[in-house]
Every structure is written in structure tokens, then in C-alpha cells.
Amino acid sequence: MPIDFTQVFVYLVTDPLLSEGRSELDVVRAAAAGGVRLVQYRDKFADGPTYLEKARALSILCRELGVWLVLNDRVDIAALVDCDGVHLGQNDLPTAEAKRILGPGKLVGRSTHTAEQVRRACGEGADYVNIGPVFPTSTKEVPMAPVGLEGVRAAVFAASVPVTTMGGICHGNVAEVILAGADRVAVVTAITRAPDIAGASRELVELVERTRSQRT
């Protein structure tokens, strides 16, 4: 079943180097117990066979848990495993080419950093866009200037598809992001480094839901 973004409040992006020694499977299992419904498998350092093996294992687990799974960057591997799509950066394959490789029923998301990139991604057929980094973050190899809450507002206004927000978002500032117009947030360390992953996930989901209900 295609990803239903109306049911996604918190979107987990994995990172094996930022998980306190816990495996992606353990992190995803605990996050799902806390209400996370969408996972992006991201591992910038895994070789092809390792990435494929982990992606297959995560796909099986996510199906069992009722969680949607997208792969970061690797369109080729996304076409080989039973996942829901792929998430691409600005310098990755064009959306149309990625969709041709993936086949019908798979979604293509695109990372964006400006409202203009959001409009272009939507025009090229992206199924969702991510705007960020919202706040300073250390999870990117090449640091980027934060877009801030104004960048979130501009992206939401410019988008014709669902928007996710990412970069430096945590329990302490997630309400600001939602009040700026975002409907959901993507996080790495706010979940992966939490001593209690299920509890941290549940708290984030509840914060997003509660803040969305307070918007006028």
C-alpha cells in the first residue's frame, strides 16, 4: 500500500554510527513500538552487498510491523527489495529515471533546501519533498546553512505534495516546526541516541499530534 502521509507524524532516518551500538533492526522495532510509521534506511558507508542484505532484512521487519520503508539514494537496491520507495538528494538520479527503474507503486522523495527546489521537485514528479536542515545538525558530512522556520513556511507554501522536515529537530523544538506549518518531522538522533527509543518515539509523535491540533 502506498505511503499515507496523513498517518505519518514522525519519520525515522537510520544511521548505524549514531545508534549507540544498536542495530537498525533493533532501532526500527523499538521506534515502531513508539508510533513511528515511516523509516528511511540510510547508511552512507555500507558497500553494495551489505546495503542490500540490510535493506532486505529491514523490508521484512517493516512489513511485519506495518511500517513503510524507503531507501536512501540506492534506487537500484530499492528496485530489488520489497520497500515503498526511495529518497534522493539534489545530486541523485532525476525523478523520472528513478521511477522508471523502480516501477509502478513505488514513491520517490527528494531532499530540498529552498522553496525553488521544492517547486522544481514537485514539477518533476516527486511524491514528497523534505526541507532542511531546519536547525544546525551534525548528521550531514557536509554542513549546510539551516533554512530555519521561515524556510519551513516557504517550503510548505510552495509544495503541491507532502512535506517532511529534517535537521536538528528534537523534543525541545519540534513544536516550533509544527507551528511553522509542518505536518510531520524526520529525525535521526532524537530517536537513535535515546536510551529508551520507544519512549522517545512515542513522546515525539504525541508532541507532533498535540501541536497540530493547536494550530489555528
Produce the secondary structure layout.
Blueprint: E1 10-13, H1 24-33, E2 38-41, H2 48-65, E3 68-72, H3 75-78, E4 85-88, H4 95-102, E5 107-112, H5 115-123, E6 128-131, H6 148-158, E7 163-166, H7 174-179, E8 185-187, H8 189-192, H9 197-214
Parallel strand pairs: 1-2, 1-8, 2-3, 3-4, 4-5, 5-6, 6-7, 7-8
Task: Give the low-confidence spans.
Answer: none
Our count of helices gives 9
Secondary-structure content class: alpha/beta
**SSE order in H/E notation?**
EHEHEHEHEHEHEHEHH
Q: How many individual β-strands? A: 8
Net shape:
globular
CATH class: Alpha Beta
Task: Write out key terms for the chains shown.
single chain; alpha/beta; eight-stranded parallel beta barrel; 9 helices
